[in-house]
Amino acid sequence: MVVNQSLEAMHFVEDIGLFFEQMGLPRMAGRILGVLLISDPPAQSITEICEKLQASKSSISIMARLLVERGLIEQVASSVPRRDFYRFKPGGWIVYMRQWLGLISALHEITERGISLMDSKPVELRGRLQEAHDMFSYVEQEFPALLDQLENQRQNK
Amino acid sequence: MVVNQSLEAMHFVEDIGLFFEQMGLPRMAGRILGVLLISDPPAQSITEICEKLQASKSSISIMARLLVERGLIEQVASSVPRRDFYRFKPGGWIVYMRQWLGLISALHEITERGISLMDSKPVELRGRLQEAHDMFSYVEQEFPALLDQLENQRQNK
DNA sequence: TCGAACGTTCAGTATTTACAAAACATTCGT
DNA sequence: ACGAATGTTTTGTAAATACTGAACGTTCGA
Description:
Largest sheet of chain A: 3 strands, antiparallel
Strand order of the largest sheet of chain A: 1-3-2
Shape of chain A: elongated
Oligomer: homodimer
CATH class of the largest domain in chain A: Mainly Alpha
Number of helices of chain A: 6
Strand content of chain A: 5-15%
Radius of gyration of chain A: 21 Å
Largest interface: A-B, 53 and 53 residues
Protein backbone atom coordinates (compact mmCIF):
# COMPACT_ATOMS: atom_id res chain seq x y z
CA MET A 1 0.00 0.00 0.00
CA VAL A 2 2.58 2.50 -1.05
CA VAL A 3 1.98 3.71 -4.54
CA ASN A 4 -0.76 6.21 -5.29
CA GLN A 5 -2.57 5.64 -2.05
CA SER A 6 -3.52 8.10 0.62
CA LEU A 7 -1.88 7.90 4.00
CA GLU A 8 -5.21 7.14 5.60
CA ALA A 9 -5.83 4.27 3.23
CA MET A 10 -2.38 2.86 3.95
CA HIS A 11 -3.07 3.14 7.64
CA PHE A 12 -6.41 1.40 7.28
CA VAL A 13 -4.88 -1.45 5.30
CA GLU A 14 -2.08 -1.87 7.81
CA ASP A 15 -4.53 -1.92 10.70
CA ILE A 16 -6.46 -4.78 9.16
CA GLY A 17 -3.11 -6.48 8.74
CA LEU A 18 -2.33 -5.98 12.42
CA PHE A 19 -5.73 -7.30 13.39
CA PHE A 20 -5.00 -10.43 11.40
CA GLU A 21 -1.72 -10.79 13.20
CA GLN A 22 -3.52 -10.55 16.55
CA MET A 23 -5.70 -13.38 15.37
CA GLY A 24 -2.69 -15.48 14.51
CA LEU A 25 -2.99 -15.07 10.74
CA PRO A 26 -0.42 -13.72 8.30
CA ARG A 27 -0.38 -9.97 8.18
CA MET A 28 -0.19 -9.94 4.41
CA ALA A 29 -3.53 -11.72 4.20
CA GLY A 30 -5.02 -8.96 6.29
CA ARG A 31 -3.51 -6.34 4.06
CA ILE A 32 -5.06 -7.93 1.00
CA LEU A 33 -8.42 -7.94 2.71
CA GLY A 34 -7.87 -4.32 3.64
CA VAL A 35 -7.27 -3.41 0.03
CA LEU A 36 -10.37 -5.30 -1.10
CA LEU A 37 -12.48 -3.49 1.48
CA ILE A 38 -11.77 -0.03 0.11
CA SER A 39 -10.71 -0.62 -3.49
CA ASP A 40 -12.35 1.09 -6.39
CA PRO A 41 -13.51 -0.97 -8.17
CA PRO A 42 -14.18 -3.63 -5.53
CA ALA A 43 -12.73 -6.41 -7.67
CA GLN A 44 -8.98 -6.36 -8.12
CA SER A 45 -6.52 -8.68 -9.81
CA ILE A 46 -3.48 -10.24 -8.20
CA THR A 47 -1.13 -7.90 -10.01
CA GLU A 48 -3.14 -4.86 -9.07
CA ILE A 49 -3.00 -5.84 -5.43
CA CYS A 50 0.72 -6.48 -5.80
CA GLU A 51 1.27 -2.95 -7.00
CA LYS A 52 -0.85 -1.39 -4.30
CA LEU A 53 0.91 -3.32 -1.55
CA GLN A 54 4.34 -3.28 -3.16
CA ALA A 55 4.58 -6.97 -2.37
CA SER A 56 5.59 -10.02 -4.33
CA LYS A 57 3.19 -11.87 -6.57
CA SER A 58 3.84 -15.12 -4.73
CA SER A 59 2.73 -13.71 -1.39
CA ILE A 60 -0.41 -12.26 -2.85
CA SER A 61 -1.25 -15.39 -4.76
CA ILE A 62 -0.84 -17.66 -1.75
CA MET A 63 -2.51 -15.34 0.76
CA ALA A 64 -5.42 -14.68 -1.58
CA ARG A 65 -6.03 -18.41 -1.68
CA LEU A 66 -5.94 -18.51 2.11
CA LEU A 67 -8.58 -15.79 2.24
CA VAL A 68 -10.74 -17.68 -0.24
CA GLU A 69 -10.46 -20.81 1.89
CA ARG A 70 -11.50 -18.80 4.92
CA GLY A 71 -14.50 -17.47 3.04
CA LEU A 72 -13.56 -13.81 3.33
CA ILE A 73 -12.97 -13.09 -0.35
CA GLU A 74 -14.06 -14.73 -3.59
CA GLN A 75 -13.04 -14.89 -7.19
CA VAL A 76 -15.34 -13.14 -9.61
CA ALA A 77 -15.98 -14.09 -13.21
CA SER A 78 -13.40 -12.16 -15.14
CA SER A 79 -14.28 -10.04 -18.14
CA VAL A 80 -10.67 -9.45 -19.08
CA PRO A 81 -9.04 -12.73 -20.07
CA ARG A 82 -6.15 -14.20 -18.14
CA ARG A 83 -6.88 -12.08 -15.13
CA ASP A 84 -8.28 -13.39 -11.85
CA PHE A 85 -10.28 -10.81 -10.00
CA TYR A 86 -10.93 -11.08 -6.32
CA ARG A 87 -13.35 -9.15 -4.19
CA PHE A 88 -14.58 -9.11 -0.65
CA LYS A 89 -17.21 -11.81 -0.25
CA PRO A 90 -20.53 -10.49 1.03
CA GLY A 91 -21.24 -12.12 4.35
CA GLY A 92 -17.60 -13.01 4.75
CA TRP A 93 -17.42 -11.80 8.33
CA ILE A 94 -20.22 -14.12 9.28
CA VAL A 95 -18.26 -17.02 7.89
CA TYR A 96 -15.33 -15.79 9.89
CA MET A 97 -17.32 -15.78 13.11
CA ARG A 98 -18.75 -19.22 12.36
CA GLN A 99 -15.21 -20.48 12.20
CA TRP A 100 -14.52 -18.90 15.56
CA LEU A 101 -17.56 -20.73 16.91
CA GLY A 102 -16.09 -23.90 15.45
CA LEU A 103 -12.98 -23.46 17.55
CA ILE A 104 -15.10 -22.99 20.64
CA SER A 105 -16.94 -26.20 19.80
CA ALA A 106 -13.64 -28.00 19.52
CA LEU A 107 -12.67 -26.66 22.91
CA HIS A 108 -16.00 -27.83 24.24
CA GLU A 109 -15.21 -31.36 23.16
CA ILE A 110 -11.79 -31.20 24.72
CA THR A 111 -13.27 -30.20 28.07
CA GLU A 112 -15.70 -33.10 27.82
CA ARG A 113 -12.80 -35.45 27.41
CA GLY A 114 -11.17 -33.74 30.35
CA ILE A 115 -14.19 -34.33 32.53
CA SER A 116 -14.40 -38.00 31.70
CA LEU A 117 -10.71 -38.10 32.55
CA MET A 118 -11.54 -36.97 36.07
CA ASP A 119 -14.58 -39.06 36.89
CA SER A 120 -12.72 -41.02 39.50
CA LYS A 121 -11.73 -37.80 41.26
CA PRO A 122 -13.78 -35.91 43.84
CA VAL A 123 -16.34 -33.46 42.53
CA GLU A 124 -14.54 -30.32 43.64
CA LEU A 125 -11.65 -31.18 41.35
CA ARG A 126 -13.99 -31.33 38.41
CA GLY A 127 -15.38 -27.83 39.03
CA ARG A 128 -12.85 -26.12 36.77
CA LEU A 129 -13.69 -28.25 33.78
CA GLN A 130 -17.36 -28.25 34.54
CA GLU A 131 -17.32 -24.46 34.46
CA ALA A 132 -15.65 -24.47 31.04
CA HIS A 133 -18.00 -27.13 29.80
CA ASP A 134 -21.10 -25.24 30.92
CA MET A 135 -19.83 -22.02 29.38
CA PHE A 136 -19.07 -23.43 25.99
CA SER A 137 -22.33 -25.34 25.96
CA TYR A 138 -24.14 -22.09 26.49
CA VAL A 139 -22.17 -20.31 23.80
CA GLU A 140 -22.77 -23.15 21.37
CA GLN A 141 -26.44 -22.90 22.19
CA GLU A 142 -26.86 -19.14 21.92
CA PHE A 143 -24.28 -17.90 19.46
CA PRO A 144 -25.75 -19.50 16.33
CA ALA A 145 -28.95 -17.52 16.88
CA LEU A 146 -26.90 -14.34 16.94
CA LEU A 147 -25.22 -15.38 13.71
CA ASP A 148 -28.56 -16.11 12.08
CA GLN A 149 -29.77 -12.70 13.18
CA LEU A 150 -26.76 -11.16 11.49
CA GLU A 151 -27.39 -13.20 8.38
CA ASN A 152 -30.98 -12.00 8.16
CA GLN A 153 -30.11 -8.43 8.98
CA ARG A 154 -27.57 -8.47 6.18
CA GLN A 155 -29.83 -9.95 3.56
CA ASN A 156 -32.73 -7.63 4.32
CA LYS A 157 -30.81 -4.62 3.14
CA MET B 1 3.44 -33.85 30.41
CA VAL B 2 5.60 -36.91 30.34
CA VAL B 3 6.34 -38.11 33.82
CA ASN B 4 3.77 -39.96 35.89
CA GLN B 5 0.86 -38.86 33.76
CA SER B 6 -1.68 -40.95 31.94
CA LEU B 7 -1.72 -40.93 28.18
CA GLU B 8 -5.17 -39.39 28.20
CA ALA B 9 -4.03 -36.56 30.43
CA MET B 10 -1.05 -35.91 28.14
CA HIS B 11 -3.37 -35.85 25.17
CA PHE B 12 -5.73 -33.46 26.90
CA VAL B 13 -2.92 -31.10 27.82
CA GLU B 14 -1.53 -31.18 24.31
CA ASP B 15 -4.96 -30.47 22.82
CA ILE B 16 -5.32 -27.33 24.90
CA GLY B 17 -1.87 -26.42 23.66
CA LEU B 18 -2.97 -26.90 20.07
CA PHE B 19 -6.07 -24.84 20.67
CA PHE B 20 -3.87 -22.02 21.91
CA GLU B 21 -1.77 -22.31 18.80
CA GLN B 22 -4.90 -22.01 16.67
CA MET B 23 -5.65 -18.83 18.54
CA GLY B 24 -2.22 -17.45 17.81
CA LEU B 25 -0.84 -17.97 21.31
CA PRO B 26 2.21 -19.99 22.39
CA ARG B 27 1.50 -23.66 22.70
CA MET B 28 3.35 -23.89 26.00
CA ALA B 29 0.94 -21.42 27.58
CA GLY B 30 -1.89 -23.70 26.55
CA ARG B 31 -0.12 -26.69 28.01
CA ILE B 32 0.25 -24.93 31.34
CA LEU B 33 -3.44 -24.11 31.35
CA GLY B 34 -4.14 -27.72 30.46
CA VAL B 35 -2.19 -28.91 33.48
CA LEU B 36 -3.95 -26.45 35.77
CA LEU B 37 -7.34 -27.64 34.52
CA ILE B 38 -6.83 -31.25 35.63
CA SER B 39 -4.17 -31.04 38.31
CA ASP B 40 -4.63 -32.48 41.76
CA PRO B 41 -4.39 -30.31 43.72
CA PRO B 42 -5.60 -27.44 41.52
CA ALA B 43 -2.78 -25.14 42.59
CA GLN B 44 0.66 -26.02 41.31
CA SER B 45 4.04 -24.37 41.58
CA ILE B 46 6.27 -23.45 38.67
CA THR B 47 8.64 -26.32 39.36
CA GLU B 48 5.82 -28.81 39.62
CA ILE B 49 4.51 -27.72 36.25
CA CYS B 50 8.02 -27.92 34.86
CA GLU B 51 8.30 -31.52 35.91
CA LYS B 52 4.92 -32.47 34.56
CA LEU B 53 5.59 -30.87 31.21
CA GLN B 54 9.27 -31.72 31.09
CA ALA B 55 9.92 -28.14 30.06
CA SER B 56 12.31 -25.46 31.16
CA LYS B 57 11.68 -23.19 34.10
CA SER B 58 12.07 -20.10 31.96
CA SER B 59 9.30 -21.11 29.58
CA ILE B 60 6.95 -21.93 32.40
CA SER B 61 7.73 -18.75 34.29
CA ILE B 62 7.21 -16.51 31.29
CA MET B 63 4.14 -18.29 29.96
CA ALA B 64 2.55 -18.41 33.39
CA ARG B 65 2.87 -14.64 33.54
CA LEU B 66 1.24 -14.39 30.14
CA LEU B 67 -1.67 -16.47 31.37
CA VAL B 68 -2.01 -14.27 34.44
CA GLU B 69 -2.06 -11.17 32.23
CA ARG B 70 -4.77 -12.77 30.14
CA GLY B 71 -6.79 -13.50 33.26
CA LEU B 72 -6.90 -17.25 32.78
CA ILE B 73 -4.87 -18.25 35.82
CA GLU B 74 -3.99 -16.57 39.11
CA GLN B 75 -1.45 -16.80 41.84
CA VAL B 76 -2.71 -18.12 45.15
CA ALA B 77 -1.45 -17.23 48.55
CA SER B 78 1.22 -19.75 49.25
CA SER B 79 1.37 -21.81 52.39
CA VAL B 80 4.80 -23.15 51.66
CA PRO B 81 7.34 -20.35 51.65
CA ARG B 82 9.26 -19.42 48.48
CA ARG B 83 6.82 -21.23 46.28
CA ASP B 84 4.43 -19.51 43.94
CA PHE B 85 1.33 -21.49 43.33
CA TYR B 86 -0.84 -20.91 40.32
CA ARG B 87 -4.28 -22.19 39.64
CA PHE B 88 -6.98 -21.80 37.06
CA LYS B 89 -8.87 -18.59 37.74
CA PRO B 90 -12.61 -19.09 38.18
CA GLY B 91 -14.38 -17.20 35.43
CA GLY B 92 -11.21 -17.11 33.39
CA TRP B 93 -12.93 -18.16 30.21
CA ILE B 94 -15.29 -15.25 30.49
CA VAL B 95 -12.33 -12.90 30.67
CA TYR B 96 -10.95 -14.65 27.65
CA MET B 97 -14.13 -14.03 25.66
CA ARG B 98 -14.29 -10.45 26.80
CA GLN B 99 -10.88 -9.99 25.28
CA TRP B 100 -12.14 -11.50 22.06
CA LEU B 101 -14.96 -9.00 22.13
CA GLY B 102 -12.36 -6.30 22.60
CA LEU B 103 -10.68 -7.32 19.36
CA ILE B 104 -14.01 -7.14 17.59
CA SER B 105 -14.52 -3.65 19.00
CA ALA B 106 -11.14 -2.63 17.66
CA LEU B 107 -12.11 -3.97 14.27
CA HIS B 108 -15.33 -2.03 14.56
CA GLU B 109 -13.40 1.18 14.98
CA ILE B 110 -11.16 0.36 12.06
CA THR B 111 -14.15 -0.10 9.80
CA GLU B 112 -15.53 3.23 10.98
CA ARG B 113 -12.33 4.90 9.92
CA GLY B 114 -12.59 3.03 6.64
CA ILE B 115 -16.07 4.38 6.04
CA SER B 116 -15.09 7.96 6.71
CA LEU B 117 -12.26 7.31 4.29
CA MET B 118 -14.80 6.59 1.57
CA ASP B 119 -17.36 9.32 2.14
CA SER B 120 -16.51 11.00 -1.14
CA LYS B 121 -17.14 7.76 -2.97
CA PRO B 122 -20.49 6.51 -4.27
CA VAL B 123 -22.65 4.57 -1.83
CA GLU B 124 -22.27 1.19 -3.50
CA LEU B 125 -18.54 1.28 -2.82
CA ARG B 126 -19.21 1.76 0.86
CA GLY B 127 -21.43 -1.32 1.07
CA ARG B 128 -18.61 -3.66 2.02
CA LEU B 129 -17.53 -1.58 4.98
CA GLN B 130 -21.07 -0.76 5.97
CA GLU B 131 -21.79 -4.45 6.19
CA ALA B 132 -18.82 -5.00 8.47
CA HIS B 133 -19.73 -1.98 10.53
CA ASP B 134 -23.32 -3.09 11.01
CA MET B 135 -22.22 -6.57 11.97
CA PHE B 136 -19.75 -5.55 14.58
CA SER B 137 -22.15 -3.01 15.98
CA TYR B 138 -24.66 -5.76 16.46
CA VAL B 139 -22.13 -8.06 18.08
CA GLU B 140 -20.96 -5.30 20.37
CA GLN B 141 -24.55 -4.70 21.31
CA GLU B 142 -25.62 -8.30 21.92
CA PHE B 143 -22.54 -10.18 23.03
CA PRO B 144 -22.08 -8.46 26.40
CA ALA B 145 -25.52 -9.68 27.44
CA LEU B 146 -24.45 -13.21 26.63
CA LEU B 147 -21.33 -12.72 28.71
CA ASP B 148 -23.33 -11.38 31.62
CA GLN B 149 -25.60 -14.39 31.38
CA LEU B 150 -22.57 -16.60 31.61
CA GLU B 151 -21.27 -14.66 34.56
CA ASN B 152 -24.54 -15.06 36.44
CA GLN B 153 -24.91 -18.68 35.51
CA ARG B 154 -21.45 -19.33 36.86
CA GLN B 155 -21.92 -17.53 40.15
CA ASN B 156 -25.27 -19.14 40.90
CA LYS B 157 -23.74 -22.55 41.23
C1' DT C 1 4.17 -19.24 -33.86
C1' DC C 2 6.21 -16.26 -31.07
C1' DG C 3 6.18 -13.17 -27.30
C1' DA C 4 3.93 -10.86 -23.67
C1' DA C 5 0.96 -10.84 -19.66
C1' DC C 6 -0.62 -13.15 -15.76
C1' DG C 7 -0.83 -16.33 -12.13
C1' DT C 8 1.26 -20.44 -9.72
C1' DT C 9 4.83 -22.99 -7.68
C1' DC C 10 9.23 -23.83 -5.86
C1' DA C 11 13.38 -22.81 -3.63
C1' DG C 12 15.81 -19.67 -0.85
C1' DT C 13 16.17 -16.01 2.72
C1' DA C 14 15.32 -13.36 6.55
C1' DT C 15 12.68 -12.52 10.38
C1' DT C 16 10.26 -13.92 14.11
C1' DT C 17 9.44 -16.60 18.04
C1' DA C 18 9.08 -20.49 20.99
C1' DC C 19 11.88 -22.70 23.93
C1' DA C 20 16.12 -23.98 26.58
C1' DA C 21 20.34 -23.28 29.31
C1' DA C 22 22.70 -20.51 32.29
C1' DA C 23 23.44 -16.72 35.18
C1' DC C 24 21.15 -14.11 38.61
C1' DA C 25 18.27 -12.58 42.62
C1' DT C 26 15.75 -13.73 46.65
C1' DT C 27 14.29 -16.11 50.52
C1' DC C 28 14.39 -19.37 53.92
C1' DG C 29 16.35 -23.15 56.95
C1' DT C 30 20.20 -24.50 59.53
C1' DA D 1 26.09 -16.36 57.43
C1' DC D 2 26.01 -19.84 54.34
C1' DG D 3 23.88 -22.98 51.17
C1' DA D 4 19.90 -24.87 49.11
C1' DA D 5 15.55 -24.26 46.87
C1' DT D 6 12.67 -21.51 44.01
C1' DG D 7 11.49 -18.21 40.63
C1' DT D 8 13.15 -14.46 37.29
C1' DT D 9 15.79 -12.56 33.70
C1' DT D 10 18.97 -12.76 30.07
C1' DT D 11 21.18 -14.78 26.37
C1' DG D 12 21.42 -18.09 22.88
C1' DT D 13 19.52 -21.42 19.56
C1' DA D 14 16.62 -24.07 16.77
C1' DA D 15 12.50 -24.19 14.36
C1' DA D 16 8.68 -22.17 12.21
C1' DT D 17 6.97 -18.99 8.97
C1' DA D 18 6.26 -14.90 6.35
C1' DC D 19 7.90 -13.12 2.44
C1' DT D 20 10.76 -12.66 -1.86
C1' DG D 21 12.75 -13.88 -6.40
C1' DA D 22 13.09 -16.84 -10.08
C1' DA D 23 11.54 -20.56 -12.83
C1' DC D 24 7.51 -22.46 -14.80
C1' DG D 25 3.02 -23.20 -17.12
C1' DT D 26 -0.75 -21.24 -19.50
C1' DT D 27 -3.35 -18.36 -22.32
C1' DC D 28 -4.08 -14.85 -25.42
C1' DG D 29 -2.99 -11.33 -29.06
C1' DA D 30 -0.21 -10.07 -33.03
